[in-house]
Amino acid sequence: MPVIRKECRNKIHGELQARFAALISQVATRELINNREGAGKYHWVNPDERCCTIGGAMDVRLAVDDFKAILAEVRKLK
Q: What 3-state class would DSSP assign to 53?
């Protein structure tokens, strides 16, 4: 069980919460605008069964990488 200073724990906890909230906001969903959205030159057969994330692909990847970075810091605790 790691023993750390309270100040360090509070900082890590705050960073975890902020980065997780950012990740959740990027993968939040919305309805498709039309049955072609995200399908390229084709269309979705059942667009009602699909949804779109709020964040774009790059935004989602950045949020995931950011969250992975704080998890790596937590993993270093001894």
A: strand
- How much is the pTM? 0.81
Query: Which residues make Cβ contacts (< 8 Å) with residue 69, sequence separation at least 6?
Result: 19
- For 21-39, how does the pLDDT look when each residue is reduced to its tens digit (9 = 90+)? 999 999 999 999 989 888 8
φ, ψ at 52 (rounded to 5°): -125, 145
How far apart, in whole angstroms, are the C-alpha atoms of residue 21 and residue 64? 11
Paired residues of 53 in beta bridges: 29
Alpha-helix residue ranges (DSSP H) falling in 1-78: 6-26, 57-75
